[in-house]
Design goal:
Order of helices and strands of chain B: HEEEHEHEHEEH
Number of helices of chain B: 5
Radius of gyration of chain B: 20 Å
Order of helices and strands of chain A: HHHHHH
CATH topology of chain B: Glutaredoxin
Number of domains of chain B: 1
CATH superfamily of the domain at 25-96 in chain A: Cytochrome C biogenesis protein
CATH architecture of the domain at 25-96 in chain A: Orthogonal Bundle
Largest sheet of chain A: none
Number of strands of chain A: 0
Shape of chain A: elongated
Mean pLDDT of chain A: 82
Largest interface: A-B, 15 and 18 residues
Low-confidence stretches of chain B: none
CATH class of chain B: Alpha Beta
Oligomer: heterodimer
Chain lengths: 153, 174
């Protein structure tokens, strides 16, 4: 029993030592906040559907370290992104820059919306032309009146 | 007849796009570094930690930089091709041992053959980041002025060597 107790105590003592092994989460909260902000908009090239912020790939960890260093050196967010684009290409940006080769990408949805609206308008116009004026005949009028009166009763 | 023509046309265009999309490899991201100067660096060599290597030492030569690691499976697949290439003496081949343990890298070369003039030792992957490395192995063809002319992502195959790299090196050496 004593032996067990001693072992339990030893385990308890060992715990704080283990806890120390965890790396500091954030050395500088401001830098870390900017790191997260920038890296959520950057693509991890190893697992392409993950952002740099969310990926545990080794390259992503290295790139986060690189971004952190660039921030600490006093680079603006744009300069950090420009650095990564100059190395890995525009593919790393989840939000592509607006330029001639991306006009279609940015404008495409609006073009489709306008095309859709034009089709809708022309369809509605054509349909309203098809529905001609057909006045009620005398017999139909009487029947309608009977129905309406019957409803009131 | 006419009312089917438009949807059919749209369908065919869509199928065309999808068919092309199927043949593309999403892992092949065009490198913005092709046509730009190779980023400079200075790191220790793999075999001799006291000696260093910088791309400036290769100025005036057309050379190949091959990024490899002992933990990289595709590198092993690629290695015999590089060994054969080194024998032809078409261009000097410099290795960049990427995020590896020194002893692992040395042992790997001893086991599978060393086609490299020398291997630079990029322990923390910073040189790799500067070269836009994201999938080892990667190979760069760098011209006499230090400009990157070609980048192969993934293993160099005999076909790539024969149709792209060797003709390009010969062209650049003229």
């Amino acid at each position: 029993m004593k032996m067990l107790l001693a072992m339990a105590c030893a385990l308890l003592l060992a715990n704080p030592v283990l806890a120390k092994d965890a790396a500091p989460l954030a050395e500088d909260p401001v830098v870390e906040a900017r790191l997260v902000k920038i890296s959520t908009e950057l693509r991890c090239l190893v697992c392409q559907n993950e952002s740099l912020a969310g990926s545990q790939a080794e390259l992503a960890q290295d790139l986060r370290r690189e971004v952190r260093d660039l921030i600490k050196q006093g680079n603006t967010d744009q300069q950090v992104k420009d650095f990564l684009v100059s190395r890995y290409g525009e593919f790393v940006l989840y939000r592509p820059q607006l330029k001639p080769s991306t006009w279609l990408l940015w404008g495409g949805p609006f073009v489709l919306l306008i095309v859709g609206l034009a089709v809708l308008v022309s369809y509605l116009r054509r349909r309203s032309r098809l529905i001609g004026e057909t006045p009620l005949s005398e017999a139909e009028k009487q029947r309608a009146e009977v129905l309406l009166k019957g409803d009131q009763a | 007849m006419n009312r089917f023509l438009l949807p059919l046309g749209i369908f065919i265009v869509l199928v065309g796009f999808l068919a092309v999309g199927l043949t593309l490899n999403p892992r092949e991201v065009p490198s913005p570094l092709v046509g730009k100067s190779a980023p400079d660096f200075k790191v220790p060599q793999l075999h001799d930690g006291a000696a260093s290597f910088s791309p400036q030492e290769m100025a005036g030569k057309v050379w190949l930089l091959n990024v490899w690691a002992s933990w990289c499976v595709s590198c092993r697949e690629e290695h015999p091709v590089l060994n054969e290439f080194a024998k032809t003496g078409v261009a000097p081949l410099v290795g960049l041992n990427y995020k590896d343990k020194r002893e692992d890298g040395i042992r790997w070369l001893a086991r599978f053959g060393d086609p490299y003039l020398l291997s630079a030792f990029d322990l923390d992957g910073r040189v790799g980041i500067n070269y836009g490395v994201y999938g080892v192995p990667e190979t760069y063809v760098i011209d006499k002025a230090g400009v990157i002319r070609f980048k192969q992502i993934g293993p160099v195959t005999p076909a790539v060597l024969q149709t792209k790299i060797i003709p390009l090196v010969q062209e650049l050496n003229k």
